[in-house]
Amino acid sequence: MSVSPTPSAGPATDAADPDWLRLDRQICFSLNAASRAFNGVYRVLLKDLGLTYPQYLVMLVLWERGALPVKQLGEHLRLDSGTLSPLLKRLEGAGLVRRERSASDERSVRVTLTGEGTALRERALEVPRRIAAATGADPAEIGELRDRLDRLTGALDAAVRELEQGPAAR
Amino acid sequence: MSVSPTPSAGPATDAADPDWLRLDRQICFSLNAASRAFNGVYRVLLKDLGLTYPQYLVMLVLWERGALPVKQLGEHLRLDSGTLSPLLKRLEGAGLVRRERSASDERSVRVTLTGEGTALRERALEVPRRIAAATGADPAEIGELRDRLDRLTGALDAAVRELEQGPAAR
DNA sequence: GAGCTTTTGGTTGTGCACAATTTAATTGTG
DNA sequence: CACAATTAAATTGTGCACAACCAAAAGCTC
């Protein structure tokens, strides 16, 4: 591969080269740190709105798409019911959404914005600008980073599918 | 800015332009998704070792630096005792580390690798290579992404500090 | 229509992140 | 020495992520 050989040590055990573990840590670690740092900024900015960051994501989808069943909400956000069910109950408890069984399909639960939930959008409008300011990067750079992350996510998801069902061959 | 104006609607309220919320969602959302996708790959690769991803990070630090007090472990990983204490107890329960009060400073708890914990390193050596393969990117691209994320994290952390103590002025 | 599979949500349990509080040991100051 | 302030961990409580499992409702097939 195109991995540059370690210029320093290790003639003896190439596989035990500590650099492998260090390099790796920095990749995954950097992403983890960035994710949590982002979370920290959102935590501060959303405190006034009474929302957590995942709750904000749910509200964004509802503001953009209107009422949705839980299933579709989960598809937009890549979250399953184990995460969404309690989250939506808290949003309902806060008076921002209603959850009501569909009449046509009793299995489906439709999530609808209340008046209060719709009104909250006004106060959320300035959040993106403040986030952009916090990143200290211009929109073009942010866009490039986003594309790169999306490609990475696609590759990682594909790798997981391959790892899980590839070797076992079902 | 380079944000393309919405071709469709909204002449009335510029501040209510839905694009702001959409664009924003994609930045934070992409990072969140990438972080969780990475977590998914690690989950699969680390299952054999009996480690979760944060536990793996702790082990990486210990393999690299040797025994450390909880405080320093937390500084390396940006994690506090609320996260580390139960995590370390689980690692101790798995027989990978020991936790012992320092003799010189009874407040401090020193985390030490057991023989089993040290031995586990051998089996972890192949993880980075498999992660790199899963990303589908060459090391140079990964390195660039890492630098970008680190810069982003720095800017976000600075923004949080400013938001929290700047306005209030202590 | 009886019986099977699929779909949709919910529940439970484990583990992590983080804020807030608590305890014990140490340090600093009079 | 007494006493306040600081420090290191632990604990508690809330919320999210995800796996595993369950239940009810549709949809199918014969």
From TrEMBL, chains A, B:
Assigned keywords, A-Z: Cytoplasm, DNA-binding, Transcription, Transcription regulation
Stored Pfam families: MarR
GO biological process, one term: response to stress
Classification via InterPro entries: HTH_MarR-typ, MarR/SlyA-like, WH-like_DNA-bd_sf, WH_DNA-bd_sf
Location relative to the cell: Cytoplasm
PROSITE patterns referenced in this protein's UniProt entry, alphabetically: HTH_MARR_2
Domain HTH marR-type intervals: 24-154
GO MF annotation: an example: DNA-binding transcription factor activity
One GO cellular component term: cytoplasm
SMART domains (UniProt xref): HTH_MARR
Full protein name: MarR family transcriptional regulator
Organism: Streptomyces griseoluteus
Lineage per the UniProt record: Bacteria, Bacillati, Actinomycetota, Actinomycetes, Kitasatosporales
